[in-house]
Structure formats: C-alpha cells, structure tokens
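Q: My labmate handed me this sequence with no annotations at all. I'd like to see what the chain might look like in three dimensions before we decide whether it's worth expressing. Could you predict it?
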Amino acid sequence: MASWPLAHSMSFAATLACLLIAGCAVGPDFKKPATPKVTSYTDHPLSTTVSSQNITGGEAQRFANGANIPGDWWTLFHSTPLNALIEQSLKSNADLKAAQAALLVASETTKAGHGAFYPSVSGSFSASREKDPPGSLAPVPSNNAYRYDLFTPQLSISYAPDIFGLNRRTVESLQAQEQAVRFQTIATQITLSTNVVAAVVQEASLQAQVDATHQLVDINTHMLKILQYQLTKGYVGRLDVAAQESQLAQVTATLPPLIKQLAQQHDLLAVLVGRFPNEIPGGSFDLASLQLPQDLPLSLPSQLVAQRPDVLQAEANMHAASAQIGVATANRLPNIALTANVGSTALAMGQVFKSGTGFWNIGAAITAPIFQGGTLLHQERAAKAAYVEAAEQYRSTVLGAFQNVADTLTALEQDAEGLKAAAHAADAAKITLDLSQRQWKAGYANYLSLLSAEQGYQQARINLVQAQANRFTDTAALFQALGGGWWNRADLANADSMQNDSMQDKNEK
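A: Here is what I predict for the chain of 509 residues:
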C-alpha cells in the first residue's frame, strides 16, 4: 500500500493530467484569407512590346504567363559589375543587417515564449544566524537554544496548466509576429536589389546626359566662334552673336545640376553596397553595357498573394491579431497554479542532508477575475477590433500589390512606345540640325532657325536617354512587384538559414 505522501502525489499527478487533457484554446482559429478570384492584372490583354532598332534598350519584351522568377533576377541584365555590386550589397548593407538582426530577435522571443509550456524549477539556499530573547515562549530549536544557525536548501516547482490555451495563443501570436518580421526582411532584401539596379541605371542615364550636354556645349561654342568671326567680317549683326552667347550660356547652365545629380547617385550607390562615398571603386556604368531582358516571367494573379513578401507579412500580422483575441479571452477565465516545494532545514551545515531534516509540500490554487473595472472586457474588444484592422490592412496590401503589378506592366508597354517615339524624334532632330547648319552656312536660312534646331536636338537627346533608362528601371520594378523570386533563394526560403546568417554576421563582428 502506498504511503500517504506517495498516494497524494499520485492523486495530484492524475488531477494534473486531467486538466491537461481537458484543456482547450479559446478564441478563433486562424484561417488563411481566400485567394482573390482575379484572372488578369490589366483590363486589356498583354502583348509583346514594340521594338526600336539599333537603340540600346530597344528590344521587344514578351510576357511569359505563369513562368517562374529566378532568385537572382538581376543577372538577366548580363552585367558582371552590376552582379558584383548587388552581391556586395546583400553582404554589407546596414539596413539589411538590421532587418536580419530583428528577425533573430523575433525568433529568440518566440523560443522564449515556449518556456511557458514547461514547469518552472528554481533552487535556493539560505543561511542565517539568529538569536531569540531569553524570555521567548517558544525557542525554535528542539534543544531550546536561543542562539543558533539555520541552513535551508530548497527546490521549488511551479506550473500553470494551459487550461484555456493562454500560453498556446500567446506562442501562436509570437510565431506569427516572427513570420511577419521574416517577410519584412525578405522585402528589405528584394527592395535593396531593386534599388541597386535602379541606382546603376540612373547613374548611367545621368552620365549619358552629361556627355550629351558636353557635346552640345562644344557645338554651341563652335557656332559662337563662327558667328564672332562673321561679325568681324560684317556678315552678321551683334544681335546674332548675343543670341548665340545666350544659347551657349543656357546649355552650359544645365551641366551643374546634372553633374550634381550624378555625384549624388554615385554616393547613393556607395551607401547601398555598405560603403562610404569615397570608398566605392571609380568608373561609371553605361546603358550600352546592360542588356534588356526580353522574356519577362509573369506570375499568375492567383500566385501573387503567395509570393509578395508584403502580402505575406500582412497575413502574418492578421494571424497574430487573431491569436491575440484568444489571449484576451483566456485572461478573463480562471487560472490554475500548481506548486511543489522540497527541501531541508538544519542547525548545522553537516546535518542538512541527514534524515529527519527534510520537508515538502504540494498545492494548487485557482484564481478567477471577478471585477476589474471592465479592463479585461475592453481588452478583448480591442483585440477583436485589432483583428478587423489587420484584416482590412491585408486587403489593402493585396489591392496595392495588384495595382503595383498593373502599373508596372502598363509602364513597360508605354516605355517601349516612348522609346520608339524618342528615337524617331532624336533622328529627326539630328537631321533638322544638320540641314539647318548647312543652310545657315550657305546663307539660305537665318540664325534663329538654327537656334531652334539646336534646342530641339538638345531636348531630343535628353529625352532619348531618359526613355532608355525607363525601360531598364521599370523592368527591374516588375521583378520586385512580382515578389523578386525569393522562394528560389535558399537563404531566403529557409527561415533557419536567414537566422543562422544573421548570427554568423554578428559573430564575425
């Protein structure tokens, strides 16, 4: 027959088992939002874009519906220096490292939350020297000593059965928050890659505009010299010379802003790759060194919500808000705490572990909120309202994602049309300028028509370079809008890998 303490211990364990079996998680179980029933991104069928012959970035682009997006999509531009910059940015960018550290924080916080499922065990040891007054009615030691030492080692165990799922919902919320941070980190990496491509393209565009403007300055300087010579011979008046001087000054005045923008773009590119502005290697990019991707993978609309990291982050936030309803509901229900203590008390250190000095106790307590001034009720209502807020934010994010893709697709179509028109305009302006110069030199045209031709040619050159840059930047924007192919990168698709990379970076520092 079991002893009294053993019998009570078995009864206590049985009661605990029943409580665990009967436990349930209050609050709603999260359900993934339904995939939007959308079959296309735009209100018109997509077709192959127009092409412009013998122009950088003038290739026709075809949309491959349902095709997968490579994780290293930037390699489709076939630029080794660009690839090197992006890989360096993925290793050294401070914002990305901060996002990876935030993911590690969220992961460790989730793991810490799992501790609530296990008993809490703590040990203590106390030693004291005590003296009771001589007239004391009940001295503590059995030898009636009024001055004595007391040594008490003790082991305490406490456990709160998760009867109503408070711990489960709390951990569920933490896990969802960790997923939200994970997708935010993925979005940071995709945005970083896109920004590097955009910075390279913009730098190349500005460099081309600076070069074109330098050529225009040379043309106008040469024309001014001719006019000054003709002025000395009496072939033209001072008004013509003054008009050319004004034209040269206007063209020259456009150079400083362009050079400033070029320098700022260079500095931006340095920061994106994790360097100081004076540390980035010299040299500049040329649009002609980039190859425009001609076959563009286009994810199906039904796949977009499962690929866009911002949509997945919004879904995770929605999941976390759903779990918080369960947390708020469980806080309004009774809470059970189980405790056990075992230890020993002796008057001498050498007697601590001898027979007859031990003690133990087990207990259970239940606490139920009775009146909290409406605090718990309103916290539950607030949690439900927060879920509605998260659900609407998710819907807004989905709509924004589809808008982003639709806008980019339209931009790509119109970029091709714009480049074709800009190329024709540049060719026509060059022919007009050449003919005007010949007619002016032959005396068949006045100088004002030549000035007009120069201005038209200047603007046409700038417009052509900008149209070329638009095709490259909007192509990169499409890859970003469709999710960046992160699921095809092992370092992003595997959450543990992302956390390990972050920890490795921390250890290297």
